Protein 1
Amino acid sequence: MRLFLVSPFLYKKKLDMENDLLLSLVDKYDSPLYVYDADKIEEKYNILIDGFSNVEKLKLNYAMKALSNISILKIFKKLGAGLDTVSIQEVKLGMKAGFAPEEIIFTPNGVGFEELEQAVELGVQINIDNISILELFGQKYPEVPVCIRINPHVMGGGNRKISVGHIDSKFGISIHQLPLMLRVVENTKMRINGIHMHTGSDILDIDTFIIASNILFNAATSFKNLEFIDLGSGFKVAYKDGDIKTDIKQLGEQLSTRFNKFCEDYGRSLTLMFEPGKFLVSESGKFLAKVNVIKQTTSSVFAGVNTGFNHLIRPMFYDAYHHITNISHPNGRKRFYSVVGYICETDTFASNRQISEISEGDILCFHNAGAYCFSMSSNFNSRYKPAEVLLYKGKDYLIRERETFEDLLAKQIEIDLD
């Protein structure tokens, strides 16, 4: 049962106004189309700030791999966030968006040492998650302060593909290798100014955060010159009515108390960092697609849309759920559909999903499409990537043009085979 903070009439009116706006954007920019709401991004950012208001020094570094459009990055710069980056290209995009090097943390995995050397030249905070790289870095750059990513061996995340803190994960240096870490630090005289962990995305239970953070706090006592502790992220968002989400207020209260006690015991106030991505942008995004065909078979009714997993891969890749609504006829009779794409592979967004009756030409809205949607898009089947639009202070802005045939050819080199 839905609980209304306002009357059902006002709630419906708000939805109708939102649907009308989205339909007008399709008329203006065509489909498929990604639309992001800056107000929702700011709302989610402030929820985290308020949740950890009892921490003296708090820094949120937006995990830009979730959505890296430069206009989105500028929103986070304006809000006061830093950036969490995983490639040197992300570092450069962040600096292009106006972030200072000291506002960017670089946490790569499995990259060549030359990429770390570029990061040193750019002056960003580096986070190392490999013993051999830690030793090499300490030998070459003992004066450059670095963070160490520790694997706490805690299973956290919505499924194994997005769980990165377990014992078989490629990420981080095992907590059981702490003595070896300390030996490398001592031998090279390198400067460790932070320690970091990230157990995974869509963590269901806040106890996972508490258990993993206690492991990290205990490890932190072995490093005497820390400036910050980075607890990663993984805050769960709701994908549908009644879905589980992270209780930020409860987590903030418990974790802030534990962190403040650690700082007291450590002897000075450190900065508590998080690197949220999905939590900040998922709900801000909507993906709009037109229904090309309605196809009824002996067992299913398919709604085939003018997009596919080349634009939104999460349902096929992670079995992720995206709520789908028919914004052309939101109040129609509910029927069951399998919503499928136009890619020449199995390309299913939803199976046997109850949606308001769909006709060819209707516009479907995929909700929670702000995180890991456009950023994971491709040109599979030689399809164009869609446009992106930002709603900011009551106006809509095109922040990425729809690709054209010329874009497909731009980097290809045609040779003469005669």
Protein 2
Amino acid sequence: MGSELIYRRHESQPVSDSYSPKPDKPWASVVRPIRYMLREQRLVFVLVGIAIATLVFTVFPTSPAPRVPRHQFIDPIPDSISYFPVDAQNKFSHPHRVGLGSSNPAGKIPLGLKRKGLRIVVTGGAGFVGSHLVDRLIARGDSVIVVDNFFTGRKENVMHHFGNPNFELIRHDVVEPLLLEVDQIYHLACPASPVHYKFNPTNVVGTLNMLGLAKRVGARFLLTSTSEVYGDPLQHPQKETYWGNVNPIGVRSCYDEGKRTAETLTMDYHRGAGVEVRIARIFNTYGPRMCIDDGRVVSNFVAQALRKEPLTVYGDGKQTRSFQYVSDLVEGLMRLMEGEHVGPFNLGNPGEFTMLELAEVVQETIDPNAKIEFRPNTEDDPHKRKPDISRAKEQLGWEPKVSLRKGLPLMVSDFRQRIFGDHKEGSNTNNGESSS
């Protein structure tokens, strides 16, 4: 039986040319998230998170910061260091190597915000000048690392910072390498008095090591040089542009030429390796914590007068010096470090005294009956020494504030306590100090 194809057009089912998906069920957008939260106990985690957030905001409530008028800002630096320049506050509110910009063009930090402290190393920080510098840096809120071998420094000078989390003390000689992470380096480590540097002649290895550290970590480096780089000067007063008159083989040359070489190395690292450097040339400085009997004229005179010994004047006593109080020097060093100028800068008091005039001031302050004894002058002793500080005035806005007659009694009080002890501190308090 043959096959038969039957075409029944009228019996064919209509076929649609288009496809449409199943219509969404009503409330699907609400039901799906609910099912997701209920699946695998996700709702429990959501509720726990809400409870924790509520507890945190209850225990530590936040209050909106008070509106501060644009003109009401405060200086973040304490009154004791109010000399800190406004532009330096603006630039160094964060470590200087983080960046050059600032989100606060006014140069002030708004009320309620604190300046971010720097991490600073002070070599020779247990010494006379170094310990006073450490005091100011700690008061400013910086973290300070003192590095000292205690050849001339004294642990007693910094003991009052023991226990402060922002203070560290390392017994170390900088002639050996030292690895630290710091933002700034104040390099003060060096015997500065004739008694000490003649006993242990200065070398420049310590300066070389500290410059190497500054190069490795990108720290700013400040060298404390000296007015001795001018030698026995033929220019008076001495400007920073004067190259000096130094005996390279004399008994003082270990100190004079050592500092001159240190300045050379500092500038070579600046020009050749891009290290940020600052150079200060320090003139005669006095104040509390000076080494007793260190051969420097102020400490010699004060110690001799307190002990009722003759004041020893070398030569004819007509050679001149300039004396600045230690707080003035520290102010100048900090301004130099935070400023934009390399230097060198003379940091000293331009008030000039002969040795005989200084002896008279010490007599007035301590003992009017103190005798003066003349002795042969020492070799290579400079005849005149007076700084020209016009560069520091113009570029740092710095000049000394404390006169010799105001600063000397403060030093005398410290020496009296250290020589005689606490039980005799007040025995001669009025002996001449009232005349200052």
